[in-house]
Specification:
It is a single chain. The chain has 171 residues and is mainly β. The protein has three helices and eight strands.
Length: 171
């Protein structure tokens, strides 16, 4: 038997679009039974911050269904400071995987990624994630947003750059 459902709250595209995500069907007891991708997979990147005493940890996932669509960002972090932490995409990657202070300094990662030379007033820098979407908050920082200025392909792609979480004092 084939059932058909119509859900007007489940868009295929846009900020909350489901294309490129997956659907999971659960058994009656709540366990996962089967899953599948919805539509075209697109481009996805996961930035992982490993658990290390005194540092924030977790992940930031970036997904772009098509080169013309907004990039969806899923933030799942713990360990932000009480005052909150700014986070930005910087021009160059860190010197080593799982970098700490020595590998994330400005001499390594360069400045904020700002290919349009935005001045930070009306238009934000491409890489200014906290300026566009708010600081990482203390405790568990979870967020989901869509951003038209975080392309994962093309001349202004953020792929191959670094995400730097700044201390509350700006360093």
């Amino acid at each position: 038997e084939k059932d058909t459902y119509s859900d007007t709250d489940l868009p295929l595209s846009g900020d909350l679009g489901v294309v490129g995500r997956s659907i999971v069907i659960h058994k009656a007891d709540g366990t996962r039974w089967v899953c599948a991708n919805i539509g075209t997979a697109g481009i996805g990147k996961v930035v992982t911050f490993p658990v290390k005493a005194g540092y924030p940890s977790g992940s930031i996932e970036l997904f772009q269904a098509t080169p013309a669509s907004k990039t969806t960002v899923t933030v799942s972090m713990t360990g932000a400071e009480a005052a909150g932490n700014k986070y930005h995409i910087h021009v160059t990657p860190t010197a080593a995987m799982n970098g700490a202070d020595a590998d994330c300094g400005g001499s390594i990662t360069g400045g904020h990624f700002n290919p349009t030379f935005a001045d930070g007033t009306a238009a934000k820098e491409y890489g200014d994630l906290s300026g566009k979407h708010g600081n990482l908050t203390p405790g568990n920082s979870k967020a989901f947003y869509a951003d038209a200025t975080l392309p994962l392909s093309g001349d202004m792609s953020v792929v191959g750059r670094s995400i730097v979480i700044h201390k509350a004092d700006g360093t």
